[in-house]
Amino acid sequence: MFGDLFEEDAVAFVGDCKGSNGKKSRVKDAEPPPPRGAVTLSGIKNQGGTCYLNSLLQTLLFTPEFREALFSLGPEELGTLSDRDKPETTVRVIPLELQRLFARLLLVDQQAASTSDLTDSFGWSSNEEMSQHDVQELNRILFSALESSLVGTSGSDLINRLYHGTVVNQIVCRECGNTSERQEDFLDLTVAVKGVSGLEEALWSMFVEEELFEGNNLYRCGACSKLVTAAKSAKLRKLPPFLTVSLLRFNFDFARCERYKEMGSYAFPIRIDLRPFCEQVAGAADSDYEYELFSVIIHKGGCYGGHYHVYIKDLDRLGRWQAPEEEIKSKVPVSGVRAPDPILEMGDPLSVLKAILAQEASLSVRVDQLGQKVMETVGVSWNKRFRKSHGPVCKFLQQHPTVFLLDSDGSRVHLKQSRAPSPEQGPQERGGQGDGTPEEPAGSHSTPPHPWFDFNDSSVQPITERDMEKQFQGKESAYMLFYRRAGLQRPEEARGNPRYKVPEHLLEEAEAESRELQRKRAEFDSVSNTVELRLHLGPHYRLQHGALHPASPPQDSLLRLAFDRRKSVGDLRQAVYQLQDSWEGDMALTVAKSLPAGLHLYDTLTDDQQSLHSSGLVDGSDLFVWNGREVCGEPVRVGAESQPVLLSIVCPAGGVGGEALLSETPQGFPADCRLGEVCVELARQTGSELGELLLCRWEEKQSPRWRVYPPADLHKTLSQLTLCDGDTLLVLHSQALDCSLFTRSGDMVTVGTPSDCSWLQVEYSSHPQEGSRVATVPAEGDTLLSEIKQKAIEELQLLDLAGSDCCLRPMDRNWKLLPPVREDVSVREGGVKLTSTLFLCPSPPLTNTQLFLYYTMGSDPQAGPEMELVVEESTTVRECLKQMLEVAGLEGECWHLRKVDWCYELGDPLSEEDASLAELQVSSGDTLVLTEGRLPPKGFLKLPVWLFASLRNGVHSETGRDREKETELNNITEQICEHSISTVESSEAALQYVGGVEISGEATLEDLKTQVLTLPGLPDLWVPSPGFLRVWVLESKRPCRILRGNQLHINSLKLGSGTEIAIQPLAKEENLGLQELLLYLQVGVPGERQYYPAEELVWDTSKDSSSRALRQAIASHYSLPPDKTLIAKYCPDKSHWMPISSWSQQVSRKKKKKRQPESLQGAPFHLRDGDLIGIKNLLIDSNRDFSTERDNAEKEKLRREAEDKKKSRGQGVRFQSEEAVADKKPPARNRRPEVPLSINVGVFR
């Protein structure tokens, strides 16, 4: 019953919304509900844990007599909701809100209606909406609330008239015949489930069987005044028009002191005769005792959690029934094909055994082999599935002599029925319905007289009466039954008419709401297809160092245009023409991208008939508008191969005391230009002769050594030399080698330390488009940084810039500005190196009690723009979070902070929101991530749950699909293996988010599996028990570890809040040991660079986890000689194969003496669950290379991604990004501890 409690987690947080200006957030908030589906019936939204309420409300709605009686109460009796706040008026809010909800469900064109107004009228808070409650308890409480609300109205007897019945308990004296009676009222009958086979047997034990008082247990008769023998019995005296039956599914095991759910078979009829259970009344018609089933509330899960949905008969034919897909397939006739085998019902042992025998050519099988065939057919043994209800298999065969024939020695069983039944055979013999109901002819899919539908929160699906049998037993079984008197007839005008007896004011309100929804859907469709494009106008740009840079202010060079992505490129071109009236000549629209070196052009949109969506344009895309040939008279290189690379050019400059110092300047060059062309350009800029310049590349970061490029490298391009953004080139004039600062030895140049290095450079730039000014300030280690800043301001003549309005900030090698230095300390104390460069920035300096923090938004710290914030170190986490939300323009309470770890990945959340930043050891320069989602309560974990997308519809429990199920389960190994070796992006695409669970750390793994199975995102996933489910822990969207030990606590499994898990259904139960590893094996195809499909291997590492033991296990698995078996582990992050051999051969003799026993679970292989092991059979395959063509392609892709990431980091620092506005979502609600259920009702007496 968790419903969509974690639905908000299914939406991925968007951390970077360039140019959206909040449009995406508004679109999501304003998204209207979808219209009704094909069945034309409306569901009810789950508020988090209200599936029990939804099921009961749908049952009441499809009880026409209840619905119409409620609609008959007008405003003159109930009042109006508009007067609810007026103290002098009487407004019965609960029945009014129930009327409005019923009208919406009947008439408003939306997939699901909301019950928030109704639950508000109950006085419920998030506790009731998010907590688990019992539907049987709700039924009694809701009826009591309605009775109290309708006091003094014509509907005061509504509940009593429709649902009230009486039971009479009698004790009859066997000596004098005196009868003692006691009458009891009921609104629902509570019947036992344990120890009975069905409803009729339970009613028989309650109302037919007598209890005798005899022996030591005698009864004192009031008439005889002595202890006598007596008989006690009960009968139904008055039957209500609608009989509600509550099944006691939940019991308490006093031996184990725990609750449990009865999951055994419990049959209930569609039509039942209650005369045997009632007092016999003369003249009563038979129709008064005939009742028909019209609603079944079903509970799926265990006694500590689950989900409710309801099967309902549509008495008024309000919905549009369609035959379920499996029903249609089963009725399609195929000419020329023999009669089908017996239908396999997974929950019916008779059907299972008949299907097994029918598949044999001799229609017989050995009894000792029957258990294995049952396991192969249903995926679980006979003892676990059927023994409790039907006994041993041999006994079951003996109990059905009309179906099975045993040999005289009992060793073999034969099927008596023929394989192809004749048309004369009855429906029971042909595997049809056992109730004698005639089957529809093949190909007939007409709507039944009273169709059934499955109402599962927002979803409504058609079903058949045969689906009712599936709810007799198991984790998903019937919990409440609703019968109506068979003699109750519906008027013809109510047939197919949802407006029947709905009050006029509710009709008008529903029609107005439907019109408003249609308007919002049309508006949403238009807004959701609108993208904002950033148009860079070519006449306002200039080409500099291989990249485009604005030559005008942004208001002139940049134009934002909102456009419908469904329109064509030609429409966009026409719109741009209209915006630029002065444009002359051709106009080309080219996709552009901002790089660290500047703006670069890629593909030009040439097909005017192509839509923007198919062209790949998304919200925030950059387009360059130009003539397609040149910018400001200079030709422009277009394409990915010529994108500019931002290099750091280092060259000698005049220093203090006449010594040569180094100055560093960023400069961009096309990646396809040769190094010789770079040399020519640098010679032109420095005014030097070409032959006098030397280009050097940084060789060793540990020491200041540079390698001179040889003449041959001058003919290579920058991409061939693997130069990328941020790389440094040293440019030396031949005369510079005469300086003491530089020393050349062969092709190596060493940069020495100048004799006088007591200085600091301070750089200042008032505008990103203008050049910067540099001041060299003499400094010592004891010089205060405040003095350095003041001298720099004076030297740069920034007299209008006060010292309190600016600060000094260093910069790292990636051009990222570091936190401001404290100015009340010396150069040495501030960690500033002499001869380095500080940047003068317009922001107040830091005090000794302040922290300078970076923060981003989203789940990926590297994806979104990085923002800055200065706070006091005594600020609490809650206050810091509030300040960040205000700066980002976000609202709501569903946010928390996480700290970025040392490798710039998302770390643990700052859960102690009332602790100060200093107490949590947050220091200046740390990066915090503003993450969406409220933190779970203390002691609880919030775990996102994923399902492999290819498995989403792969496992069903419907009859006739068992072979499909087996095939899907057999393919899971290959699919999981494919996900584990794929890239991060493709792995994420292969996973389907199905929801999240919030569970106590003290719960067991079995509880986690049970709770996962109740998620509404898994409606079609069916497994017999939690043992048939494998739970993976995901890292970077790849399976990396299997959770073991169903009885272990979640805390002992080392799961943190936010840990992502993925589920995998299995064909049989699994119980992996703590020392067992699950590996995927792939054998190489001889002579080809590819592999056969993967297989699973469970490897026991308890005795030996060395490479020799693994090779022996694999060789034994494939019957190969170990010395001819070559194995390697696949590393998906690098698309690299790592040959597995004894690592002791690769260490020194000294280390051998100290090393521990070899283990592949340690360095360097770190073998774990889900790892892929490649296998080469050297007997038939001499190629020892494990790599494939796919691996080479992935390596090249990873290299390009690394280059792009480096460029994007440089761009994020060097050029100020626009403020991104993250998508806003409605505030999330946390689960609360379970509280007693109640409904608040006013006093109307």
TrEMBL record:
Domain (USP): residue spans on this chain: 42-486
Keyword Translocase: no
Region (Disordered): 413-458, 1142-1165, 1189-1245
Record-level Gene Ontology MF annotations: hydrolase activity
Sorted UniProt keywords: Hydrolase
InterPro entries: Papain-like_cys_pep_sf, Peptidase_C19, Peptidase_C19_UCH, UBL_USP40, USP, USP_CS
Compositional bias annotation for Basic and acidic residues: 1189-1206, 1221-1234
This protein's name: Ubiquitin carboxyl-terminal hydrolase 40 isoform X1
Species this chain originates from: Huso huso (Beluga)
